[in-house]
Write a structure and sequence with these properties.
Number of strands: 5
Oligomer: single chain
Bound molecules: 1,3,4-trihydroxy-5-OXO-cyclohexanecarboxylic acid
Largest sheet: 5 strands, parallel
Number of domains: 1
CATH superfamily: Dehydroquinase, class II
Structural class: alpha/beta
Number of helices: 6
Order of helices and strands: EHHEHEHHEEH
Radius of gyration: 14 Å
CATH topology: Rossmann fold
Strand order of the largest sheet: 2-1-3-4-5
Length: about 150
Amino acid sequence: MQNGKLLLVHGPNLNRLGLRSPEIYGHTSLSQIEELVREMADGFGVATEGFQSNSEGAIIDFLQSYGPSCLGIIINPGALAHYGLSLRDCLEDISRPTIEVHISNVHRREEFRHRLVLSPVVEGQIVGLGVEGYRLAATYLLTRYTSDPGKG
Ligand code: DQA
């Protein structure tokens, strides 16, 4: 049953945002990103549920519980983006509107980051725009949902 929650999911090492390689990922912490998305969703009268884990299985458990009834998912999978086939299968299974966000432009970085295994099962990807990527993803999902809740 649709409950209209917007999920914000982060993969391995993203609990270290703000501290980890700030020259690549900036100075904004994960809790600041969660706050930003929560405030945006509040403006649309929508609740959010944030989750971060360093373990692929824990992310899948979360998505299996909350995914089927959510309005959409913003996910920064971290390095799972490059090899997380179980996560890919999970997103395909729950089949909700999903935007994949990467803070850095992964295509400008090491070659192993160029392969994005979630591409076929997400609606869109935003890479390289820093924290702005989350704002754009939230605007897209919230606007789309509130303009036509049936679509969410
Ligand atoms: C990242 C890019 C990934 O390659 C990396 O493993 C991360 C962060 C990003 O947001 O730019 O953990 O997803």
